[in-house]
Design goal:
Length: 153
């Protein structure tokens, strides 16, 4: 016995395929962006670790060149930030001042910047999504990614 198809059922398979293809491509695009964002996070983390390591060795500006911390000497933030920015240019261009920010601080403000205190380097990057459909779904085309590293002076 042969089943008769209604004229409206002929395009049902194409509609189902179009809906599933849209969903699958959206998931694929999201996973590609997520992987790229994670790769950027790893680069930021490595740069923050590089800055924290450098800051643990050369943490203060030694104004009188005696090799020890004296009251009034400040954190060597400019040199630490320069070290972070020079550490890499792929996949994130760390020299880009508009999308990448670097902050340097120390852990215990009740103590001077000296041996035993910690130094914190934080790097923030505004990751731009490559797939415009994902940006329309989440409501923004950029995702702020932050990585931080702490080391002992």
């Amino acid at each position: 016995m042969k089943i008769k198809k209604n004229k409206y059922q002929k395009g049902q398979s194409m509609v189902e395929f179009a809906i599933m293809l849209t969903i699958m491509l959206t998931l694929l695009a999201g996973s590609v962006d997520l992987g790229s964002a994670f790769f950027a996070f790893i680069a930021l983390r490595d740069a923050a670790q590089e800055g924290a390591l450098y800051g643990s060795i050369d943490s203060v500006i030694d104004t009188n060149k005696n090799g020890i911390y004296d009251t009034g000497e400040s954190l060597n933030s400019a040199a630490i930030i320069a070290r972070v920015r020079q550490s890499s240019d792929q996949p994130v261009d760390l020299t880009d001042m508009t999308d990448v920010t670097v902050a340097v601080d120390y852990t215990d403000h009740s103590q001077p910047i000296c041996a035993g205190n910690g130094i914190i380097v934080t790097v923030t990057y505004n990751y731009e999504l490559t797939m415009p459909l994902i940006g329309a779904i989440i409501g923004t085309n950029t995702i702020p990614i932050t990585a931080s590293a702490t080391n002992t002076i």
